[in-house]
Design goal:
Chain A has nine helices and 14 strands. Chain A has two domains: 17-258, Aspartate Aminotransferase, domain 2 (3-Layer(aba) Sandwich); 260-361, Alpha-Beta Complex (Aspartate Aminotransferase, domain 1). Chain A is an alpha/beta fold. Chain A is globular. In chain A, helix 4 (103-113) links the parallel strand 3 and strand 4 (117-123).
């Protein structure tokens, strides 16, 4: 069985060794005679899994002790509601500021608007989100409960290289497509959330990192299973959680540790991205879609100068074992999602294919 | 590798053939060179999975065409909020009636109380939920938006044998621990919901069956990902769903079809339950906890007359490959959860163990 290089934006490829381990113990976890997916979230065996996931995450991220790790239902988009429900109450004005850097940032802002007074503090929509917009922190109303950004924009292939200093106003970041792909000073943030399905595990669950002083401010109409303090109180096991996703996350973190941790993976990610960006920049045949100063190292977006060749490019790439390179309809062209699990070899093969395709069609 | 008979209440055992199929194609679904867990929820391959799940569910359940099938985040307990948020608005009084037949019924009522005027219409708490309470439908306020019941009470081992006729007031049933374990006239219900992790698949997702005229009444503050009409509009794929759980559900439904469908599985479930209840009733050594007229065929709860023997019973059972028989702390004793996936042989071995244990300790 040959594994393809899967450039899909998510649910994304997982490291093959992780997939093999999960397969090998699928019917018999820890010699129990039952799979992890079949046992109670209250069992001592699962307890060891969730505790191990916490410990590995803390070790790999270096997140300070005053942040809690929550495993929450519904993926990142459920957080588009949970964030305002948990944080708007921090200040009486129930006000929040959102930076529109792409589709998911906008969706988050629109959902939050249903619960409070939400302003768009900056936007790059007029250039089709090809960059992170300028954001003037000094213009923020001090009565703002929080500021929301999307740290890496999966669809448009941009990222915040450094983060705004919002002072006493908590900064909230949707890091779905980049958590644990780069070093981070977690003290810059009040809350970070991420769906697992890009760098952390399978779909259906999100990880929330919340500074402990931000717990306990949920609006009265917050559904219990969106309330961070409820998750915190019960170690994310108020009800039956997605145990298999937490287990897979633990395997992914073990793998990340074997790779040398976040420092090593960030260096590798930068190398992988550079390989592809260099191939794009070396020719007029390919055109990068994101502004050079804002390029993501997780999602590399580009178009073929001759758009008529796009379908052929994608079809031939797929036949060459380079899977799911189609760009999102809002950008078109191609997108190489090269999360932590994508080997350097996958990027090298993509570059070789790009050069060969250009030679044959340029 | 020997598989245990897993009597855990959930996440519960899955059919071994389902587990084997999932394992065998874990790294390579449909010859794609990638696992199902690694591919996009927007791919044509996943589309075939979710469509196939719908079709099998309709075929096996015989649910009428005017009911929609939704796959919703968060398990059944998230529905404790979603139900009132979606249905209270059906009538101006924002009123709902709940029948307290156990722990989860009470949790559902308490969560709903946060969103509207919720009354407890009947309760069996005074007999520690050993039965389904008498419920006088004629006493319902006609301004009630819906009536909520828990059709099978996992912890206490009771079930509704037949369902109340609530007339024009929609009946909502939490069927987490029994959906597809028995034949049902779906027309009796407005909404049915069930976490997957007992009879349908792994934890982390719930299935909601909603009559189409009940869509579109969500309260204005309903988070989008709790709004049934949003799920309905986007075939449960507004955001990245728990694709692996939907896939596992499809495998479970294929297995159920191979077993002869719901008629056949119900007959087998009744046989399995009778084996254990007969063993309980044949002696004073064991004492059933549920009233005989309300006994569940999914969760068989019993105590040892001599409570001092309980720990030894559970320990020896476990050593004999009869896993997770410990009763819930609210009832004590033992609980045999014998969902669809539990083979007759597992119940036979449990009965043999019970008789042998009695012989040695009676």
């Amino acid at each position: 069985m040959k594994r393809v290089f899967n450039f899909g934006a998510g649910p994304a490829m997982l490291p093959t060794s992780v997939m093999e381990k999960a397969r090998d113990e699928f019917l018999d976890f820890n010699g129990m005679g039952a799979g992890l997916i079949e046992i109670s979230h209250r069992s001592k065996e699962f307890d060891a899994v969730i505790n191990g996931t916490d410990e590995l995450f803390r070790e790999l991220s270096g997140i300070p002790d005053n942040y809690r790790i929550l495993y929450v239902h519904g993926g990142a988009q459920m957080q588009f509601a949970a964030i305002p429900l948990n944080l708007l109450g921090l200040k009486p004005a129930h006000k929040a500021a959102y930076v529109d850097s792409g589709n998911f940032a906008q969706l988050a802002r629109k959902e939050a608007s249903r619960f409070g007074n939400v302003v768009c503090a900056a936007s790059s929509e007029d250039t089709n989100f090809d960059r992170i917009p300028d954001f003037d922190v000094s213009a923020l109303d001090p009565e703002t409960s929080y500021v929301h950004i999307t740290s890496n924009n999966t669809i448009f292939g941009t990222r915040w290289n450094s983060f705004p200093n919002t002072g006493d106003i908590p900064l909230v970041a949707d890091m779905t497509s980049e958590l644990l792909s780069r070093k981070l000073d977690y003290n810059q943030f009040g809350v970070i959330f991420a769906g697992l399905q890009k760098n952390l595990g399978p779909a259906g669950l999100a990880c929330v990192l919340v500074r402990e002083d931000l717990l306990g401010h949920a609006l009265p109409t917050t559904p219990s299973l969106l309330d961070y303090s409820v998750y915190d109180k019960n170690h994310s096991l108020t009800n039956t959680n997605n145990t298999f996703a937490i287990y897979m996350m633990k395997l992914v973190l073990e793998w990340l540790k074997e790779q040398g941790g976040v420092d090593a993976i960030e260096a590798r990610n930068e190398h992988k991205a550079k390989l592809i960006y260099d191939a794009i920049d070396a020719t007029d045949f390919y055109v990068g879609s994101a502004h050079k100063d804002h390029r993501s190292i997780m999602n590399v977006t580009f178009n073929l100068a001759n758009a008529d060749l796009n379908d052929t490019f994608l079809k031939e790439a797929n036949a060459a074992g380079l899977y799911a390179l189609k760009g999102h309809r809002l950008v078109g062209g191609a997108r190489a999602s090269i999360y932590n699990a994508m080997p350097v070899e996958g990027c090298e093969q993509l570059v070789a294919f790009m050069k060969d395709f250009e030679k044959r069609n340029g």
